[in-house]
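Exam prep: given the inputs below (a chain plus iron/sulfur cluster), describe the expected output before reading on.
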Amino acid sequence: MKTTAVSTLSMDIFKKLEILSNAANYDVACTSSGVQRNGQNGSMGNAVAGGICHSFGADGRCISLLKILYTNECVYDCKYCVNRISNDIPRATFTPEEIAELTISFYRRNYIEGLFLSSGINKNPNHTMEQIYEALYIIRHRYHFNGYIHIKSIPNTDPVLIEKIGWLADRMSANLELPTADGLKKLAPQKSRKSILTPMKQVQLTRKKDLNFHGVPESQHMIPQNVPALDIAARQPLPDNTGENCLASVRGSHNALAANKQPPGTRMETTPSDTAALAELKMLRSSNSRFVPAGQSTQMIIGATEETDYEIVHVAESLYQNFDLKRVFYSAFINTTGDPLLPLTPDGPHMLREHRLYQADFLLRFYQFKANEIITADHPNLNVRLDPKCNWAMNHLEQFPIEVQSANYHTLLRIPGVGVKSAKRILAARRTAKLQFSDLKKMGIVLKRAMYFITCNGSTMLPLKMSPGFILTNLLGLREKLPDFISGEPVYQQLSLLDDPKIGGEFIV
Ligand code: SF4
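Solution:
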């Protein structure tokens, strides 16, 4: 096996790395570390700024990824994108070999655990995705790399290519870009809703078939599949030179596809002339690999067009329901191109709006909320002062207080300050004992929020009257500390008028 250290990579690759990791910054599926640190005597490890980002595994573990574009030489002209053809910026394109060498070199140096590879559209979608496939094939079959790989797919790519890549990648994502078809038409007219959703549907259905084939019950389809390390090695038990033969086959299929000379943006139909690509697809299907085992995700830019949060949350719900997405990412719009069709962002991106959308998204994915419960057409934007769960609770005070000793799981999840884990802990603990408020705190319940919405064995935590004004005032942060008999900590918060019954607060005495 070829050994390549970072130091043996040419400066040319590092120049490309600088350009193509910066160009990947606007993809929010992960965030760049931006740290450069050399190894030192007496210490272990080092860090590089170029293109290292972090993602989180299904178990919450932080994974470092090499986050790069294959190319920023894009033939499309999406108004919001720094890489669009009409922008005058330094351009670069990796070769598949270079992507593979960088990934493996960084991996061997312990800089990264995986690869996040996106791209502009070089020549046309099929040419670009062929190059990405070739890089992936080298990484998996020449270097037998078993780590995590996330690939962004490009609209209008041939379905054969999409499937081939899906057998080698852990996660695939197709960016929706803008929440509605109208927004897309206005700012990215070379893309269409159909060209983005078609590969998403293809990945969903192929993944479903693969999971069924492996006997995974429907209820576990949304859980990332843990593919044993040996499986990837066993995909193709290749002797050292077989990787080269496979590579020749990849190149053969690439030439076959390229010979069709597709104009940019057109979808190539699978024809008999694609024999090499189809033969290869057959080989991939019959291997032990799993199809996109970590599922698929997408990203929406928020604030470049005029969609409300109501529309965005409903689009996200529909994506989860109809395409089995693992994640929808939201990216607050930053005006980097100055195009006259774009809004100005003098105060920077709307990070609070992005944050509220992520909170609403959590309610959809983990808390059994429906989009219509989170947001209504009458109030089409999320409350910036309260998180969406507290906002829902404040609008449904008639459903509170909830008795934690007897409420079911679904109802427990509705309590502000109670998360998925803490709801499960309540269910487990109350099988054997009566719960006390001090137990709830130990279970991770955020009592400073939850205390207005619960009773425990029939009692509220404090003798509180459930007045909406009182709860709202306290939720908005006027009193953030718990009473010392619960926290066990000394009380040093500023006294509030509401805390002292003698001053005429709202305590029931
Ligand atoms: S296709 Fe559009 S969004 Fe993607 S890199 Fe090209 S210009 Fe940017």
